[in-house]
Amino acid sequence: MQMEMQLMVCGLVVLGQLDTKMKIIFLRHGEPDYCELEEHSYTGFGIDLAPLSEKGRQQAQKLSTNPLLPSAEIIISSSVTRALETAFYVVCATGLPLRVEPLLHEWQVYESGTDNFEKARTMFLENKGELLPNSPIQYETATEMKSRFLECMAKYRDYQTVIVVTHNMLMRQFVPNEKIDFCQVIECELEI
Prior knowledge:
By secondary structure, the chain is α/β, with parallel strands linked by helices. 31% of the residues lie in helices and 19% in strands. The protein has a single domain (21-191), classed as Phosphoglycerate mutase-like (Rossmann fold, 3-Layer(aba) Sandwich), CATH 3.40.50.1240. It has six helices and six strands. Helix 3 links the parallel strand 3 and strand 4. Helix 2 packs parallel to helix 3 (81-94).
């Protein structure tokens, strides 16, 4: 199946007493390959070492030609390998400077294992991003994700347009999409 370039434009999202409008071009990373890490029993943040799959590299190469990207002033990437590798292709194509930000990491589930991650995702969605007091699995709430994103982005208030290479669940806190494809481009204007 051939990947299609997708672009979604979102409206202004007002987040509290913030005062600087910033155009954010969200890029979700390409498809990762977890095989080697799973073979060696990596869990938790160890899974974040996974590189892109061959298909993910092709997605990132195609993404890097998106005509919207050169309008940005800087690329800000999650420090997770799959996001960094995706950002690499965009940096090569655009020549934009790259900053790596650990606070742009994937959504956190505080129990290991794929099953716990999927259960947590279901609970997160059912509870609209909240963590109920009796939750059997602990995870990062929507409010906590928004807060760490804003903390990170406050350093970049001097920029008008930035590319942010990050992850599905973090992006979903700022865009209405229920599903965000690998290497999907979503443009938003936020107050930071």
